[in-house]
User: What shape does this take?
Amino acid sequence: MILIADSGSTKCSWAICDNKGEIIDRCSTIGFNPYFISSAKVLKHLESCELQEIKERISEVYFYGAGCSSEKMNAIIEKPFKKFFSRANVHIHHDLDAACFSMYEGEPAITGILGTGSNSCFFDGEKIYENAPSLGFMLGDEASGNNFGKKLLCLYFNNVLDEDLKQKYEEEFETDIANINSNVYNNSRANVYLAKFFPFVSDNKDHSQMHSLIMKTLDEFFRLHICCFEDYKKVKINFIGSVAFFLQEEIKKTAEKHNCTIGHIVKNPIDKLIEYHFKNR
Assistant: This one.
């Protein structure tokens, strides 16, 4: 059997396939981003998930993950995977690869990732081009879940969140700044913690303050990560990720502003990734 996995920082989607690419089963685990998890913790999570029951029957593992952008980072994931899937050949790839492959329809395109983190790239069918490396949740990740979370927290704790939104926030979330800081600065998965605040932004996107926040943030993402590509007005722009999925209309409006053409917006690309993978193996 063959395992194909698409992993963000929050969640990893696994598809268990036969040798012809037919899906036998699916499961999910936490996301394995090597910037935020150690090899020991990866192995611990694998040993406690349902993959434990079938690991000896797996012959190939294709893992596409956020943060897997260098040999050093890939090794953090590869080492425990090879130990856990001891009878399998293990292949570790960047999540940008999965994004491009899953959205490719025979023509060059730009693909943006808007999930817990964010990124973008151009794929011409043979090679993936990045304008710049991802700067992560501390310096970059514009328009990502964690980026929206940071902006919401700043509005609330700086006392500039509109009163009706403030009341809603206080009904749902932590209001003690000491606890917030502890969860951010003493947490190996701080980006995932911050992304938990995104649903508040999305659920209240019709409110003028949240609508303004969303549109300004998406405009920043387009200016930095879409308009940087020379042919951004000539090719389709696809998006994957939960943030993109819940902000589809706002993304389309932002694209119109920048004279861009939106292709597909997909929450989870694993089905299209499997199709591409077996078609082009």
